[in-house]
Design brief:
Blueprint (H helix, E strand, L loop, with lengths): L1 E6 L5 H14 L3 E7 L5 H5 L4 E5 L5 H8 L2 H14 L3 E4 L6 H7 L5 E5 L11 H13 L2 E4 L5 H5 L8 E3 L22 E5 L8 H14 L4 E5 L8 H4 L5 E4 L5 H10 L2 E4 L9 H7 L4 E4 L4 H4 L7 E3 L4 H12 L2 H18 L2 H16 L1
Helix pairs in contact: 1-15, 5-6, 8-13, 11-14
């Protein structure tokens, strides 16, 4: 069984998810990966021992436009796929070109992972929404990461038997980073990731003064790229807040997690979170709102703490509870780690996908 994995993204958690999945699948089938030559972790792909087809995609907004309208690009892609002659095409994550690739390869079964069945608040985009709808209809099997979104995919006309729920894999990738001389910063709260409306940063900022009343030594780290402007006024009124507002490299990711006492996800809506697998693997306790598929990732009181969204008081109480109770923090961190390595390991997850491949192949 020959599988062509196509991931043409460039950076972020999707590139790591795709690489880890490719590594695991390559041990169980004849796998070729088609990836972007502009991928941030291109060298990691090259060192993974996977057969690669490297494609020039784009690096800028102008590049997106020019490359997407380049018909020669799609002819080249088609020729590469014709040479491989895959039995199955697998997309670990959608790309702008996914519907076009599907259109020029109509006879090959497609297995597609949809990470965000519902667009997040502030991320709604007519073009991206249309691409996702088309790709779902073109796919033979749809994989989602949380069972709560099965009805969403069914509304696209996909029969339930063609929808598979496979949880997000662990991110031991970050354990491989050679990070030294990092000391856990007592009472340091970490907000990590792209700064966008649905992330609920304003809720955490409102909760922070309540935390400071009970824990004067508390510190807040806000780490990630995005527009920090809407929060500057409130942040200027507070002390002990550090803002790192740029794209975070893999090495920096590991460093910020290891120096934090707790990571907080105050989301106002969500599908699931790739940050939770990082926190679990690096043994950082997690506090999150119970939105979307996150309650499927966090066992409340065991692997993390769940709170109601948009409730600064409840969020503050949870932070105080974890920061003031080292044994609880340690238990949450250890239980999260065990959950990740037992339930979310890539060998187990890839076995489930391989079974779906076999059903299509036989």
């Amino acid at each position: 069984m020959k599988v062509l994995l196509i991931y043409l993204g460039r950076k972020g958690g999707g590139s790591i998810y795709s690489l880890e999945m490719a590594r695991a699948l390559s041990k169980k089938c004849d796998l070729i990966a088609m990836i972007s030559r502009q991928s941030q972790n291109l060298e990691a792909w090259r060192k993974a021992g996977i057969s690669l087809i490297e494609i020039d995609t784009y690096e800028s907004i102008l590049g997106v436009f020019l490359s997407t309208l380049n018909l020669k690009k799609y002819f080249y892609l088609w020729r590469q796929i014709e040479v491989v002659k895959p039995d199955i095409i697998y997309y670990p994550m959608l790309h702008l070109w996914t519907p076009i690739i599907n259109l020029i390869t109509p006879s090959i079964p497609k297995v597609t992972t949809i990470h965000d069945p519902i667009m997040h608040k502030g991320e709604k985009n007519i073009i991206l929404d249309l691409i996702q709808k088309i790709a779902i209809k073109q796919s033979t099997i749809i994989i989602i990461l949380s069972k709560i979104f099965i009805p969403v995919i069914e509304r696209y006309g996909v029969p339930k038997e063609r929808i598979k729920v496979i949880p997000h894999g662990e991110f031991s990738y970050y354990l491989s980073k050679n990070i030294q001389d990092v000391t856990r910063d007592k009472d340091a709260i970490l907000f990590f990731g792209r700064i966008q409306d649905y992330k609920g940063l304003e809720v955490l900022i409102s909760a922070f003064p309540l935390i400071k009343k009970k824990i004067p030594e508390a510190k807040l780290l806000i780490v990630g790229e995005g527009d920090i402007t809407p929060y500057k006024s409130k942040l200027s009124e507070l002390q002990d807040i550090e803002v790192v507002n740029h794209w975070i490299s893999d090495e920096e990711v590991t460093r910020f997690f290891l120096k934090s006492s707790v990571i907080v996800l105050p989301y106002t809506d969500a599908t699931q979170s790739g940050i939770i697998p990082i926190a679990y693997m690096l043994k950082v306790p997690v506090i999150s709102t119970k939105v979307g598929g996150i309650p499927e990732q966090i066992e409340d009181g065991k692997t993390g703490i769940l709170v109601n969204p948009e409730d600064p008081e409840e969020l503050a109480d949870a932070c105080i509870k974890v920061l003031n109770n080292p044994s609880l923090a340690s238990s949450l961190a250890e239980n999260g780690y065990q959950k990740a390595i037992e339930e979310w390991n890539w060998n187990r997850i890839s076995n489930i996908i391989i079974e779906e491949f076999k059903r299509l192949y036989t």
